Amino acid sequence: MNTGKSSVCGWWGRPAETYVRWVLGVVLVAAVVRVGLASPQGGMDNAIVVRAAEAWLDGRSPYADRHFLYLPGAVLAAVPQALLPADVVRFLVPAGVTAGLVGGWVCALRIHGVPLRSRFAVYGLLGLALGFAPFGHLVQLGNWTAGSALALPCALLLVCRGRWIAAGLVIGAAVAVKPLLAPVVLLFVFARRWRALGAAVGVPALVSAVAALAMPDPAGFFTRTLPFLLRGEDTFVRLYEASPAAVLTRLGVPESAATLLAGGAAAAGVWCAWRRWGRGGEQDASARVVECAVMLMLSAFLVSRPSYDHYLLAVLPLLLAGALVPGSAARRPWFWVALVPQVPGFSWPWLEPGTRRAFKDAVTLCVLAGTVGWVCVRSVTLENADPPVARESPVPGSRAAF
For 54-73, what is each residue's pLDDT tens digit? Predict the structure, then answer.
């Protein structure tokens, strides 16, 4: 039995055929061109940030638009787009989003030592592009979540190589633009890496302070955006939120009870991440880093407002890249069950209108969080587990941090 399973892993580890790489390239380029032809500013979400930068250039407050939910650093980061011709931006943004997703997949593969030219690497990215609906949603919207989808795997790769401060700088730079990865700072707390924690917190604080001083309304994020977020946004945007706190209220659950349930689930998730870190590295120390960080992120998605389907692209590639590692979350059947609602092209009864997509997204989020939580707290001995795919030699000193 072990021989057969090892041969399957060996097949995935062999170099991908040339025609498969061409197919992957065509799929990715076609998505970029399709969005570029349809979206003048590279996507609806990107347009919000660009308008905020244009408002700042005109001397107005970027936070006058209540749908601009980013920190002040994002305004300055979007200025180059505001100065470029629209014909350039409309193709540049989807290309940048796609590049961020590809880069995140590459870093996730490197964490687990999977060869980048392997069949698993090529087919895995092709599966994400064609079989996971939020991938297309993110490229279409031009949402800046793509930066987090690149920064988190990059930071965890640095952690696995013992470069904690560099990882903190990467997380801090990502949070300075969009605070999606803020929950990951708890990883530095668990590991007692205080300098890395200082970098992760100090960079966005410094960038935000400097950028805010350049705004006509320096406290706009705290006086306008933060109260807007705490109120759960407006009735329209709430229809797209995948957080149980938002979905349960749409099913008739009182808001206080829904918030309590979501908060309890998030707290349980943080406890699972803490247990996972305390359990040690076992055979593969990188699995410890990935599972702990992913559990922290999923815990935040359970309770945060907003919480959209494309947020999952910050964590899903990390889980999928470890599918060939014994005991990983991607080897659990419920991991794949969680992805079923996100298969494009399948019609779900009563859930087809866009405003009802959040119900499918909530199922994926909750099942995925439960699966990773179970993996974090499981007590399984891996001595008799199947050997993983042939992996590249680890970087010298990559286990020094553990």
Answer: 999 998 888 888 778 888 99
